Amino acid sequence: MESQFLSLFEVSIAFEESHLFFPRIVSWVLVGLLAIILLSKSNRIAPALRRAGQAVTQGSDGFDRKRFFGTILLIIVYFYMMAVVGDIFPNTGFGFLFVSIPFIFLLSMLYVEHKTRKNILVIAVTAVIAPTLAWYVLSQLFRITLP
């Protein structure tokens, strides 16, 4: 009987899953907030979703299929490659760094209107500096594990 009572005061940590604790809480909070939004604004969301679906399937003025589907494709490749490169360099954050640079460059090139030499240079410099700075702050200063 006493051993069962004392087991309440024992703490065991599964380190291979401990990093998932906070993201699970945040995920469930976000799912709950999404449900509240969908329930409270459903009369305005349903028509907007129908219009968006028609724009994607049939095309309409102001809808850029190349940018829309290009963005979705880039995001899918980004997350996939981040896991692949992250497995090559585990616990260093290089997966984030090495994949974010081309992702930001390609996404910016997809959305830039005029591809001048100056614009491409600014995009390239930004694509290198922004992820490197984010990687340094998160991974090196705050010691946050990145993929």
Helix content: over 70%
Secondary-structure content class: mainly alpha
Uncertain ranges: none
> Per DSSP, what share of the residues sits in E-state strands of 2 or more residues?
under 5%
- If you average the pLDDT, what whole number results? 88
Shape: flat
Tally of domains: 2
Number of strands: 0
Question: If you compute it from the alpha carbons, what radius of gyration comes out, rounded to the nearest whole angstrom?
Answer: 22 Å
State the helix count.
Answer: 6
Notable characteristics:
single chain; 147 residues; mainly alpha; 2 domains; flat
Walk me through this protein's architecture.
There is one protein chain. This protein is mainly α and 147 residues long. It has two domains: 1-60, no CATH class; 64-147. Helices cover 74% and strands 0% of the residues. It is built from six helices and no strands. It has helices at residues 2-6, 21-40, 42-58, 65-88, 94-111, 117-141. Helix 4 (65-88) packs antiparallel against helix 5 (94-111) and helix 5 (94-111) packs antiparallel against helix 6. It starts with a helix and ends in a 6-residue tail after the last helix.
In short:
This protein is mainly α.
